Amino acid sequence: MKRALWWMAGVATVAATIALAAYLWLFEVRGRIATLSAVPFGPYVVTQHQRRTSRWLPWLPTHELEVSDASGPRWRIRVRDATPWDGFGASHWLRHDELLVEDGDTWHGHDLATGALRWRAPLHHVHDARVLPRVTLVLDGHSQLWAIDHTSGVARWARDFDEGRLDALPTLGDEIVIGTDVVDLGTGRVRLELPYAFAMAGDQLFWAEGDVVMRRPAGAPPRRVLSLSALGAVDALAVGDEVLIHLSRIAQWAPDVAVRAQPTAVRLDELTARDAAIVALGPHDDVRWTVAMAHGFWRWCAVHDPRSVVVVQTSRAAGPQYVDAAFAIDVETGTVLALDASSACP
């Protein structure tokens, strides 16, 4: 009896050894069966391999992602893709310095340089992502926006989101503007509700409240900076230590209002109800210069060759046709300059 037991144990050991060797050969040594893609991303290349699987071994990973640089492979991760279209490879995103990848019923984010795990969350697919200094914003398949903390690895907050691409959202220090809400990135709390028409220059917000232009630097309370009757839309452009404010006026669009023929440097109190204006504000809300202009503002840009000027392009109705025009303003003095072809906005 004892001899039979030893014989059975020996057979079992040999069978287990053969099975283990076969497993290691098939699923480790020869586990990669195809290379699906190799995507350059900055100094790195992310290569995706499909791995051998078996319906009898449901825990096996389906894909392997390998991050390499000029010196060779840096790190790799094996995941099990839960989506049925394996031919497209594992679901993953490359954003800034992070690799986001689906693994079964969870997603996790890894530092692209080292492979260190930053976070893990049970998300329903991922439609978009954006990496910020302390959190990663992830948009899931239910149109929920999640802010996932890099330190704790858990979600700080979530909210409904239908505002387009995450990369287009303005950020102001530890705040982000979603729609018309200024949201605290740490808590998800809405710090400020903006009107529909607002402008952003650098890390500052501008908008009109009645006849008053409001200014709010990142993290600070709003303050009044200008008062002007019949205000319409507000736009802003940061140039050096100044912020240029374009002010449209509601009265401009009345059919019986005459328009200014040429842009003119004026004092702020010389503006009439028919004038649009560009006003230069210093960091302490001091008005440095004002240029009155006709309505029809189209776009503007800062040009720094050889000196800082702002180029303004307009298009306004003149009878049955539209008249396009352009001019430049010296940012330091507010002097209106003739515009040559080399100064046009790119």
TrEMBL record:
State the protein's name. Answer: Uncharacterized protein
Which InterPro entries would you find in this protein's record?
Answer: Quinoprotein_ADH-like_sf (IPR011047), WD40/YVTN_repeat-like_dom_sf (IPR015943)
Gene source species: Sandaracinus amylolyticus
Q: Which Gene3D superfamilies match?
A: YVTN repeat-like/Quinoprotein amine dehydrogenase (2.130.10.10)
UniProt-listed SUPFAM superfamilies: Quinoprotein alcohol dehydrogenase-like
Domain of life, source organism = Bacteria
